[in-house]
Amino acid sequence: MVRSSLCILFGLLFAATAVAADPTAHGPQYETKAWAGMDDRAAYRTQSWPKARLLVWATPGKGGSFRSAGSWLEGGKRASKGPDRETDILLPASDKPYVVNSRRGDHCRHVTLRRNAGVVAGHAGGPFTAWGNVWVHDGGRVHFIDIVGPGHTFFRLDGGEFGRFRFTPRGLPNPWKDSCSAHIHHKMQVTKFNDGSVEFLGNLAVGDEFYLSRGRMIVSGEFRWSGSAGKGVFEVFDGATLELQAGGAVAPHRPRSAMRLFNLNIYKGGTLRGGSPQRPLTGDAFIRLGTEGGANSGVSGLYMAEGSTLRVHTKDPAKARLALTAVAHAGEPEASGDGQGLDLQFGGDAALKGVLFDYVRVGGIHVLDDAVRKQAADAAFGPHNAGRPEELFSKMTRDPKVYYHPRKYYRFNRVMEGLGQMKKFGEDVDVTYPSSGKVFTHQGKTRYAPGAKKKNK
After folding, report:
1. Backbone φ and ψ of 164, nearest 5°
2. 3-state SS, residue 6
3. Going by DSSP bridges, is the β-strand pair 360-367/439-442 parallel, antiparallel, or unpaired?
């Protein structure tokens, strides 16, 4: 019995040491071949982290509870305390898929998931939250995860492939069979504090909506949304920046919106940019958008509200551009005079130098300020537009101050969760809703703010 126990103990110690030796989220080892071809100018490479607890899943191949301290090893011994936001976690590889079940209120810092290891939370039960780097190795799975916290981090998913999406409010029972490998969330939010950033690497997707609540989100892989719902939007709120790097792309998975919504919304105080002053574009980056023709012309596409900002930082505006184009993975649309093609709403401060327009319908570039139209000579125009550059511009007639998810709408609680974490961390942010009892109209329907009493029919 003693010999058997010693063998198990030494086995656990060896496993914990071995899994930690390879590149991980808490020890990325940027000099190794695992990062070959990655941009060495990335902000996450500059970030240093204080030493923290490392918990390793004790039983690879067999799942359990994220919160259970006894499910984890710390220093080769059973942990006495479960993960928190200052704890790194590592789920080792296994020949048999296994799922660690999580829920709202679960936190950790860096997350490493190896082959056949998965962490699954729930939509109704809430996502778990990562405060640092996330690295899902090829064959690993994560579902229902939010990103918050200070500093510069990465979210890397290896081997992600777009395909069938499935939504269940309790999370995916078997994420290897129930959905495509790129699927990481349903309604996801990112909140980075101060000048913090998170860079998404690889193919990643959410099934419905995405909320960039605060901070900078950098995409150098491909990020899709609206995979299972067909009505989701990508929203960039006040104090947030969506940055595309060379080769990076964002796109709705389903280009035609079931609710006639704009695909990508940049609100007042939000920024959309290609590259950055410190890391200008070295190749094209892509915003791929849906099109609506005929009676639905004017929906889908891009909405930039009054007070929003568009900038492109590039080494060569002739070769490294921010391309506003059509969703190629759904078939390139026929841009013609019947209204088919992109609709782009520019209500804010937009500098067009370094922007490439393609698949735009006649009158599809709607501008609130005529100064934007006068920059047409600074932009580039692809071969698939429905008319000459001067024919693509028109006056913006849509309200430049609207929100798909306004602060008084209950869905804004996804943003509030991130801002609430900022508040707890000591940041000065507004985390108040309007007074309860407020009834309002949104998207043509009667809505109720949190705490409001619904009228009986």
Report:
1. -75, 135
2. helix
3. unpaired
**Residue 101: which of 114, 118, 120, 80 has the closest Cα?**
120
Provide the Cα torsion 162, 167, 171, 172; round to 10°: -50
- 322: its two tokens: 């921010």
Query: What number of other Cβ atoms are within 10 A of residue 351's Cβ?
Result: 15
Read off the pLDDT of residues 296-323 as tens digits, 9 standing for 90 and up: 666 678 999 999 999 999 999 999 999 9
HSE-up (13 A, CA, CB side) for residue 91: 37
Task: Quote the CA–CA distance of 193 and 74 in Å, as a whole number.
Answer: 29
What is the pTM (predicted TM-score) of this model? Answer: 0.88
Distance CA 173, CA 192 (A): 30
Q: Which of 108, 166, 171, 176 is nearest to 141 (CA)?
A: 176
Banded pLDDT at 291 (limits 50, 70, 90):
confident
Within 8 A by CB and 6+ apart from 221, the residues are: 157, 200, 201, 202, 203, 204, 248, 249
Distances (CA, A) of 456 to 411, 435, 449, 453: 22, 21, 16, 9
